[in-house]
Amino acid sequence: MKTAIKTLVATTLTAIVLTSSAFTTFAKDGGKNSLNLNTAKGYSMIEAKGNVKVILVQSETENISVNTIRPEDKVLVQQQGQKLVISSNELNPAEVYVYLKDLKRIMASGRASVETDGNFKLSALQVFLSDEAEAAVNTKTESIYTVIKDNSHLNLTGSTNEHILLKDATAKLNTSRFAALKTQNSNQTFAAVDFNAQFEESLASTTFVEKNLSK
Length: 215
What we know:
Residues 43-196 form the Putative auto-transporter adhesin head GIN domain. The chain is mainly beta. It has three helices and 15 strands.
């Protein structure tokens, strides 16, 4: 199993099923089981899928901490280049703390939730939510690009120079504690919009300078 963990960085498409029973565990408050994974490095994009709660912490030390209610609960963590994919289909949502130096993108789907612990100071950020996913993001950025659809819910706090927003009628957005010098709303409906195509379009946006993020 230790060999499998070491392979995570060397082979970026390697998937590892993290279970508290497969590693040394210890009891936490509420009977939770905990596992630390510190071999994944260089990630700045987070994708959460299924029934999982991801808490992001900006830190100079990269680390991943997985907490599950039951020892047999499984969480899938997969690193694809700079992207960290976290998913779980368990009845009880797994709680995953991700410590990272920089954050470029958040993607969440299913019943996943993503939240930031503390204020993230970033040059730019992209947030994509679909299905019943939720995100609570506290950040100070030069620009932020958000796409929310279906029954997803985004809560923004902090400030930005520019906010580019694409939202359908059923999605919820709370910006009561978020200050933007400039907000650009898109009236494009989601009836015929491909979510992945919208994601690719954002990468080429002239107002959201992706080339600065890839450095």
